[in-house]
Design goal:
Layout: E1 4-6, E2 12-16, E3 19-27, E4 40-47, E5 51-53, E6 60-69, E7 72-75, E8 81-82, E9 88-92, E10 97-100, E11 103-111, E12 115-124, E13 129-132, E14 144-158, E15 163-166, E16 169-176, E17 181-184, E18 189-198
Antiparallel strand pairs: 1-16, 2-3, 3-4, 4-11, 5-10, 6-9, 6-11, 7-8, 7-10, 12-18, 13-17, 14-15, 14-16, 14-18
Amino acid sequence: MEWRHFTRAQYVTTAWSGGTTTQLAIAPEEAVYAERDFLWRLSSAQVELEHSDFTPLPDYNRLISVLKGELELKIGQGERGALEVCTVRGFDGGVPVESWGRCVDFNLMLRKGACQGIVQPITLPAGGSCQWAAPVSAPQDYPNLTLALYCAEGDLTLPGAGARAAAGELLLCERADASLLRLESQAGAAVMAAVIYTR
């Protein structure tokens, strides 16, 4: 598998009413988020406004997790509730969502009917390692696998692939397979693993 390494200098950061959003990766690469013509998108937002409303995205499903800080969500007619750090919540992007709290989050957006995905937090202690693979087999309708490993804190190495990421950097493999990966960290790491299935 061939891994690409994305650094902070390659990201696109934009301002919105409640803070800033950094686009980590988007597919296809020439897609523009504002035109809503993308297949999937990975991003991390700095939420600086105590109360805000999510941008409606009726053509997409969303997965969100908190990396730092505090966040409470009210999704549609559901109850307002806290989203704990490194807990993943999925919802329909077309449903109204309100949020409270200041945080740094991690987002995966997936076009409905075109792809599916999973986000899984991985924690490695200093000098630690683990074997990891996509936790769910590819759905029959979405056989192609993309893997993304975002190093939120610390450092991450994939010794079998010769790939390495520092804090705030992303490793991406767009033609992946379901084989086990060895993940290592010298200083310890908080990693968000995104698994994306496409047609």
